[in-house]
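Example record for the data management plan.
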Amino acid sequence: MDICRAVGRKPVLVPEHDGRIVADVVADWAARHSRPFGLEPTGPGGGTFCAGQGGVGLRADAVEFCRTLSGRATPPT
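Corresponding structural encoding:
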């Protein structure tokens, strides 16, 4: 994503590839914070993820969610 942005190209995202990456990122994030949540990442890598009951519900662009967790983007306010 950073390279695409740096050179001004639009990335090619496909659910079969990018969805797997997002799922792995969400699984790692869920294991680290160990709290209930509902998450709906949007876009080609999107899906629906949840753990437990009564957690915070989040909806965000899948790419920006992953970039935020990696420290490459600022979380939305």
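Summary line stored alongside the record: Residues 13-69 form one domain.
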